[in-house]
Batch of 2 targets.
Target 1
Amino acid sequence: MSFENLTAVSSDSILGLAQAFRRDPAPEKIDLTVGIYRDDDGQTPVMHAVAEAERALLAAQTTKSYLPPIGLPGYRTRIRQLVLGELDAGLADRTGVLQTTGGCGALRIGAELFAVAQPDKPVYLSDPTWGNHHGLMSGAGLGISTYPYFDLDGHTLTMDAMLDCLQRAPEQSLVVLQASCHNPTGADPDAEAWAAILDRIEQRAHLPFFDLAYQGLGAGLQQDALPVRMAAKRLGEFLVAVSCSKNFGLYRERAGALLMVAADAGQRRVLESRVKQIARGMYSMPPAHGALIVDRVLADTGLRNTWRRELAVMSQRLAVLRTGLARALAERRPDLDCSWIATGNGLFLQLGIDTGVVDRLRDKNHIYMVRDGRINVAGLNGHNLAVFADALAPRLP
Ligand SMILES: Cc1ncc(COP(=O)(O)O)c(C=O)c1O
């Protein structure tokens, strides 16, 4: 027997909760677990721009032959522009792009690349962060450290402690930075804070690895890429893991990209050859469908405008829900300052409640959220927001 020494491991706790939600027969149940966008009816519909691009692709499709290991040329160029904006020829020449299987694929391959280059250096993740960052980085063999990011009680960023930690981290560490819509807190540094972070990164010759999974779902397409664009102006090297799962609603199609900004064009070619080799050793070629859709949406002015409008509706809905929740809680708990709830970005909000409260909300009220107190704001809607506020308000610390 080959596998008799293996025992079962528990599934990702977020996915496990989503399963428990599906099994719960209560009609009034509320799902605030998995980070997917939902509309006011609780649906995650196919975006119109995506559906239209998909129809055109199917009509024109002539082959299912492999893509090149590095990905679709048009997609790679357009993603680079979406993230970095209009770039000058020098930066374009220094920026390599690998099409990946979603943002996770980009995070894992970027980690593998760093592990080959700097096998003894650690990776720093924010505390708290999205749970899967740990698996993706340790899977590549990197030692994991964390930097303080958020004060759960005060609901604020811990900038001084973060900067101090980056200062003390071993030189040339890999530092994963969520560019916007931080998962799980929804709290992002402003331009001034990003400048201070990049100062530390530069002083200590760390390699920033931006995780850009929510571009356009926070403060807008440009603003959500702000730290990446700031880094492009001043740093010689950095990586970006791009996901099209949320902003194109292409979750299951696995469209992503790893951007590698290198010191010069020669180094960029080296990095592209390396990541191609890493990908080849893992899965060989990326899937085509999602990338073809993104490429078509971004290439066609009409489709691009439709997509931008749809994305703006989504981000506005998230902002309205945050404001609505802050107001509903303030009405029920006038003794508390709930204004911070309205200030975050993107899908997530960290409520700062303990696991006992999370468990009671699930068991008594059929309200499901991640056990660290993170909610997916998009799971709220006109029907359930007041119900949620009624259940949560008396239990807020
Ligand atoms: C912070 C963060 N990074 C990356 C990802 C990866 O997204 P995907 O692999 O689905 O494109 C997610 C998905 O939830 C995320 O929350």
Target 2
Amino acid sequence: MSIPQTLITQAIAWRRAFHAAPELGFEEHTTAQRIASLLLSFGLEVNREFAVTAVVGTLRNGPGPVIGLRADMDALPIQELGQCEYRSVYPGRMHACGHDGHSAILLAAAAHLSATRQFSGTVHFIFQPAEENLAGGQKMVEDGLFEHFPMDAIYALHNWPGLPEGHIVVNAGPMMASQDTFEITLTGKSCHAAMPESGADPIIAAAQLIMGLQTISSRRVSPKDAIVISVTQLNAGEVINSIPETATLRGTVRCLSPQVRTTAISIMEDMVRQIPAGFGVAGRLSYRSGYPVTLNDPQAAAAAYRAAIEVVGPARATFGAEPSMAAEDFAFMLQVCPGAYLWLGAGDDAGTVGLHHPHYDFNDAIIETGVNLWTRLIEQSCPLHGTPAQLNMTQGIS
Ligand SMILES: [Zn+2]
Ligand SMILES: [Zn+2]
């Protein structure tokens, strides 16, 4: 059953209202209130007990699988420079990542599935706070989302500028990288710059260590495994003629495999201990694990792909693409529940601006595809009669 155009028009209006009133992570009170009222008006049960501002709407329609669909609600601390009529009314805040669109798509899917009910099972519509940097998804997991609402599978999508409008990409494996940060403190012995033999130079140790860390990707990890280690800050010294006592390095590590991530941390610990020691300098590593690898379950990815080819056709659906080295906190949910994260193409015209850009504005033309995708995924995963159909995975895979 196709999605009524009146619902798509309504979803565009919701999206623009969210866009005009963006709220930052864990402060999405007005957005959450609006979402909760709409879900209640569609006849869903509503839970607001998770992660400060999260909203979970539940639609029960007989026995069958329990599927979660997740959207994010938060905006970014960026000043909007676009001049659309629904631009942000708050200085220094904007929906620069399209979470306004993700929420509108999920709301419209809830309205449509509740009205049509061509499935047998339960759907949890999960509106998550604080995807940007604050790990709202992790907070929902820690607050017991999956104990309170056990699910057979969970799905999320992200609009993707640079991918042709309405194309859908899903991988049976990594979609997005892990995102960790580190700080390394090097402690030597200060001395006059003209008499280096009387001290221990942390800057020389830092230089060697930075080059050493770059060999992890080239010498210690297989060339087939993606990893990025970037030292982005180096602070040391106050005067031109004195060797300082300490140097501090900071940076970030991105990986596409949990095993490579674990290996990299262990090698970094060894290097931070051993390389500075050769210069009489002590090294200490403080490593902060951030978002994990966004790792799709192969079966869930296949189910999502099956829905995608029905909605957009095999020519516009891709199963297996290059993952992104950016990160996504839906990864925390995928660690405890099988599922899949998809990209929905937002357009690849020359004028398309990227996510987190001050001129970014979610492309309303992809809302209908998003609503269709969620609807078909639920109808296929929770069929009214019999078991979910299996996809012939030799079809249409490039
Ligand atoms: Zn973002
Ligand atoms: Zn985002």
